Automatic annotation (TrEMBL):
Name of the protein described by the UniProt record: Acyl-CoA dehydrogenase family protein
InterPro entries xrefs: Acyl-CoA_Oxase/DH_mid-dom_sf, AcylCo_DH-like_C, AcylCo_DH/oxidase_C, AcylCoA_DH/ox_N, AcylCoA_DH/ox_N_sf, AcylCoA_DH/oxidase_NM_dom_sf
Pfam families: Acyl-CoA_dh_1 (PF00441), Acyl-CoA_dh_N (PF02771)
Cofactor(s) it depends on: FAD
Recorded family membership: Belongs to the acyl-CoA dehydrogenase family.
Transmembrane segments: none
Keywords in alphabetical order: FAD, Flavoprotein, Oxidoreductase
Amino acid sequence: MDAAFTEEQDEIRRTLRTLLAKRCGPDEVRAAARTPTGHDQALWRQLAGQLGLPGLALPATYGGAGCGPTELALACEETGRALLPAPLIGTAVLAAPLILALGGEEQRAALLPPLAAGELTATLVVPGGRLATALALTGPNDGDWAGGGRSGGIQARQVDGAWRLYGEAGQVLDGHAADVLVVAAHTGGFARSRTLLLAVRATGPDGAETPGLLRTRQTAVDETRPQARVELRDVPAQLLLGPEPAGDDGAVTAALADTGATAAACLAAEAVGAADAALSRTVDYVKERTQFGRPIGSFQAVQHRLADLYVAVQAARSAAYYAAWAAGGARGEPGAGGLALAQALEALRAVAAEAVQLHGGLGFTWEHPAHLYFKRAACDELLLGPVHRLRARAAERAGLFGAGGPDGTGADDPAGPVARAAVGA
């Protein structure tokens, strides 16, 4: 592994940091998050047009920049530093890689170039709030997380040769505004059910919502990470798998797991960027805030707390970079992404909590910028964690404690309790 970044990678970070520093102050972030789409559309078009951000990891054949997970993770670190409200994760990290991996050539040609250009946005729809499970981050993704043939979840069926979707999903990232929905659904009876991924265009050529599709933005603690409830009532969809699989959903679960490895690295880098920014703000504040006639940053107790946070952020950054490198390699490292994400979420949670504390009474007001980071830390772990399950799954995949139970936690294995204790469950 070469830990040095290339000139191109450094330029991506520099350019993005400079632009976001001008356009993403705390007030601008709040204003963008409270718009109907949940992000600043003008800024998103600028990021797409000038920097090619949504197509950073897509091949040049489809209008992308032809980069890899490392460049995408570095970009996510900068967007995390600014707490940028944007459909980057849903579009570039979750949906586009799945379309690239599973879509037919006609589907790729129709969807990927406008996604890379920022003309369309996309997201992944997983029922039951099981996003982390679907991406194989907190458990094996070969279970009933998409419905399992039972009632509930999202079901897919063929009517006159066309696919139709019925069901609902909550906690869908940018689900209220995304133009393309990549929907995880089950088809077939209970005994022979299998998981499929299908693409749904949210609006028709006239701009009207697709019949049978109802999307409602949900209230979330973290406004910068908008989520929605998506309801599908016999909505037409296109199967994302060239020729239909002969009863085997292995290609779908494998694609989801590969996407999960990259997504974990990108989300870890994003959390590291947020933690680093929160720590920098806190360090600047303790240098200026005086108590007993001297800056509170001169007190040894405060210095020790900040030093611990600095070490945690640097360790999380190293883990995130390694996970991105592993995701882009010919041989992925089992569990690297999940471990990096766990480390980063834990670091962000610690830094955000200390930022509130060290800003004193000012930091406890909801209007203070420290709460933007605190809310991001709390909501990301609810959406993608919890941390102890990320670590337990990584340990299981690496074979550290023997075979795990059917639920991916080691519950049926004698070493399961030991494994959970060792990883902090």
